[in-house]
Amino acid sequence: MAFPRSLAGMLLDRFVDHLTYEKRYSSHTVAAYRCDLEQFQAFLADFGVDKLQQATDKSVRRWMMQLMEEGTGARSVNRKLSSLRGFFRFARLVGEAGHDPTALLDPPKTPKRLPEFVEETGMERLLNEMEWPSGHQGATERLVIDLLYQTGMRLAELLGLTIGDIDLKRGSLRVMGKRQKERIIPIGQGLIDGLKAYLAGRTAIGAGGTVSAPLLVDAQGEPLARRSVQRLVSRYLSGVTTQRKRSPHVLRHTFATHMLEHGADLNAVKELLGHANLAATQVYTHNTVEKLRKVHAQAHPRGGK
């Protein structure tokens, strides 16, 4: 059942604008919120309800049960519930709803899942023994791996890097993170040298050199596509690990885990990753604890018992 935009989508549009311009959420996050809410709106329409703000706790619970019966995972259902919570907070704030039907709902329990990362020996093999393609392609692919692993930045942050974000004299990168939050990441001499060489090669292929130009470009001088970066990371990681996940985000997990294993302060890792709170960073400590547990079990005379 379709309803006029004035009834079904006006408040939703206002909420999306709120996320985009006031909360400054990324376009991907905003799209996910809209998709979740439109899905719930379609569910309500089947029961003759034309406005999201008219939902009840029973209708939200019924929708969650339907999603899980259809095979939607608990994490995805939790994300959708989070979208509803955000919408109803906004609806109450602007006076369009008198209650929050999600307030007393408990989210489905999700199994704890540790972040997957590549062992240090695997990264050493990748960076020291891998044969990279010749020319600009090889230089670009090597720099992508180096940047992701040595800085822990997100894929969107990597693709958003411009020439002006590189400060070779100070040895740092300026990264624009989630919600347009800027942070500075220090880089080592090896990455500085790699960036110098890449910038020189970039000029050689005729790519634009203004400060606002994208840092990473293909052989035609075009900005790297998101999917091409995902594919190249997966291809290189497949040579050093058998784990199923081989995404750019795995290199972010790898960066954080290796930093903590080598004694980095948890708060420092939080700042480098651009996390809003420490809880998001603490998940990586579980990896180091599990590793120590295995070492203890193998090495201590009574560890295995």
Task: Walk me through this protein's architecture.
The chain is mostly helical and 305 residues long. It has 2 domains: 5-93, DNA polymerase, domain 1; 120-298, hpI Integrase, Chain A (Orthogonal Bundle), CATH 1.10.443.10. Helix content is 57%, strand content 4%. The chain contains 13 helices and 3 strands. A 3-stranded antiparallel sheet has the order 1-2-3, with no helix packed on it. Helix 7 runs antiparallel to helix 9 (189-204), helix 7 crosses helix 11 and helix 12 crosses helix 13. The protein is globular. It starts with a helix and ends in a 6-residue tail after the last helix. The model is unreliable at 1-8 (pLDDT under 50).
Which tags fit this structure?
single chain; 305 residues; mainly alpha; DNA polymerase, domain 1; hpI Integrase, Chain A; 2 domains; 3-stranded antiparallel sheet; 3 strands; 57% helix; disordered N terminus
What's a concise summary of this model?
By secondary structure, this protein is mainly alpha-helical. The chain has helices at residues 5-8, 10-22, 27-45, 57-69, 74-93, 120-129, 135-151, 155-159, 189-204, 226-237, 248-261, 266-273, 278-299, and strands spanning 166-167, 172-176, 182-186.
